[in-house]
TrEMBL record:
It catalyses: 7,8-dihydroneopterin = 6-hydroxymethyl-7,8-dihydropterin + glycolaldehyde. Residues 11-121 form the Dihydroneopterin aldolase/epimerase domain. Belongs to the DHNA family. The lineage of its organism: Bacteria, Pseudomonadati, Pseudomonadota, Gammaproteobacteria, Oceanospirillales. GO terms for molecular function: dihydroneopterin aldolase activity. Catalyzes the conversion of 7,8-dihydroneopterin to 6-hydroxymethyl-7,8-dihydropterin. This is 7,8-dihydroneopterin aldolase. Keywords: Folate biosynthesis, Lyase. It holds the Pfam family FolB. It is an enzyme of class 4 (lyase). Pathway: Cofactor biosynthesis; tetrahydrofolate biosynthesis; 2-amino-4-hydroxy-6-hydroxymethyl-7,8-dihydropteridine diphosphate from 7,8-dihydroneopterin triphosphate: step 3/4. InterPro entries: Dihydroneopterin_aldolase, FolB_dom, GTP-CH-I_C/QueF.
């Protein structure tokens, strides 16, 4: 049986690429590096689709800008810290029920296409 989130509508942002200061090593603190972000936003899209009204949905262009700005606003030592801030921002600022984010550093390990973290967070229920 599928969980309620598995059947929920989703807005996707795939491979959002930008540079930010991220990492523990001195060279990472001094030089912004390329990052890639995948986001899956769980949100009910029925009302927006019926009315063809973006204000009833989540604007993925706006979300993309917000997440890049958050990443670039200050240095973060850990991918884990930045990705958690991103998830909490989305849950607090947008009408989504849950979010899955994958954040990759694209040049941290030369032998890998990317290294990073993936998290899933849900809005707290009262």
């Amino acid at each position: 049986m599928l969980s309620s989130l598995e059947t929920h509508d989703q807005i996707l942002i795939d491979q959002l690429r930008f540079e930010a200061s991220l990492g523990l090593y001195e060279w990472e603190k001094n030089t912004p590096q390329p990052l890639s972000l995948d986001a899956c936003l769980y949100v009910d899209l029925k009302a927006a689709a019926a009315a063809e009204d973006l204000s009833l949905s989540v604007d993925y262009a706006q979300v993309s800008q917000e997440l890049m700005a958050l990443a670039q606003a200050e240095h973060h030592d850990l991918v884990e810290t930045l990705i958690e801030k991103m998830a909490q921002h989305l849950l607090q600022q947008h009408p989504i029920t849950a979010v899955q984010l994958t954040l990759r550093k694209l040049q941290a390990v030369p032998q890998a296409q990317g290294v990073g973290a993936r998290i899933f967070r849900q809005r707290a229920t009262s």
